[in-house]
Fold this sequence. Notes:
Elements: H1 3-26, H2 36-56, H3 61-117
Amino acid sequence: MDLLTxxxxxxxxxxxxxxxxxxxxxxxxxxxxxxxxxxRVDEYxxxxxxxxxxxxQLVSHPKLQQxxxxxxxxxxxxxxxxxELKKYESGMQTTLSNLEARLDTVEKEFAQKGTAKK
Length: 118
């Protein structure tokens, strides 16, 4: 066996081992056979996001749950107030549109009376 044949066999074995490792490593998560690349990217992003949350110590699940329980009523009340404000805003927009239309009508009538006097 010459050197070139040995190198080719080693490269093929390395590639085969890499593919086996890649398959086994991806088998831990939800890998879709129909979309293997996209599902691996999704899995990587999920792991990366989880590690960033842990690394930066943003918030733990118990603290988040505690916050939700403590401030749930306030958040719910704010959402109700926001809905009321949106409703008030739409009513005011309608009223403003009606007033502008009436003002335009009055301006046209005033302009017609002004030209009629001359």
